[in-house]
Write a structure and sequence with these properties.
binds adenosine-5'-diphosphate; 236 residues; 9 helices; three-stranded antiparallel β-sheet; six-stranded mixed β-sheet; alpha/beta
Length: 236
């Protein structure tokens, strides 16, 4: 994204959630976004993923510039070229694991590609449980279903918003290791918003936001280095 700004509201009530943010997400990398509460992390993720429009600047997904797209085209891009993983899993309780994972095909009115389903199920180690319902799964398994659903279209990028926020430490670590594996072995590009230095340390690099501006980047992060940088941003 190039010089991206996002303003909510107008006049005296205007909130400048993002200011002149320029950054690239190289293909096949895992990037974490950190910053104090209110620093613009969610806004950044929403703008980068085409869930929200920027006020100024440009966002590209591959060669496509998002602000040029009409609403229909943006919806299609979100459905076919972007994968989402949320803290609350966002699975449909009335659908099985397999039906949840293949939902993107059904929403796009396309036939289910069974080879992709098999690959996605295997990638998240759920090949043995395709017929279970979300209520029969643990939190970690539910998040793995959500990750498989995010991968099924082989998207240009996967956007994860606090994907381990609802999980215990051990399960959270397994999910982060799975995301790493997806980047390493499937060449996926992953952007994750988190407030947890341990979670962020699983990424290839961490970018920091403060007051809607980029406030540095840390490559090969360790939890200690991330926490130290956050302290200096005034988080704790
Ligand atoms: P973070 O995810 O880092 O907590 P956000 O991106 O949610 O930060 O918010 C950045 C700023 O934008 C905050 O000041 C927040 O209050 C404001 N903001 C976010 N969404 C909206 C909205 N829909 N309307 C008005 N202000 C908003």
């Amino acid at each position: 994204m190039d010089s991206v700004g996002k303003v909510y509201g107008s006049g005296r009530n205007a909130v400048h959630a993002l200011n002149d943010v320029t950054m690239a997400l190289p293909r096949g990398t895992f990037t974490a976004v950190m910053g104090p509460s209110g620093s613009g992390k969610s806004t950044f993720l929403h703008c980068a993923a085409g869930l929200d429009r920027t006020t100024s600047g440009k966002v590209w997904l591959g060669d496509t510039e998002l602000s040029r797209l009409k609403e229909d085209a943006l919806t299609e891009l979100r459905r076919e070229r972007v994968g989402f993983v949320f803290q609350a899993y966002n699975l449909l309780d009335s659908l099985t694991v397999e039906q949840n994972i293949t939902l993107p095909f059904r929403l796009a009115d396309k036939p289910i590609q069974h080879d992709r389903l098999r690959t996605a199920l295997a990638a998240v180690s759920l090949s043995e449980q395709p017929d279970r319902y979300p209520s029969q799964l643990s939190g970690g398994q539910r998040q793995r279903v959500a990750i498989a659903r995010a991968l099924i279209n082989q998207p240009d990028a996967v956007f994860a918003d606090e994907p381990t926020g609802a999980l215990d430490t051990r399960t959270g670590r397994q999910i982060l290791e799975l995301l790493r594996q997806v980047v390493k072995e499937m060449g996926q590009t992953v952007l994750m918003v988190t407030h947890d230095p341990v979670a962020a340390s699983h990424a290839d690099s961490v970018v920091f936001l403060a007051d809607g501006r980029l406030a540095g980047e840390l490559r090969s992060p360790s939890p200690e280095k991330v926490a130290d940088r956050m302290t200096r941003l005034g988080e704790w």
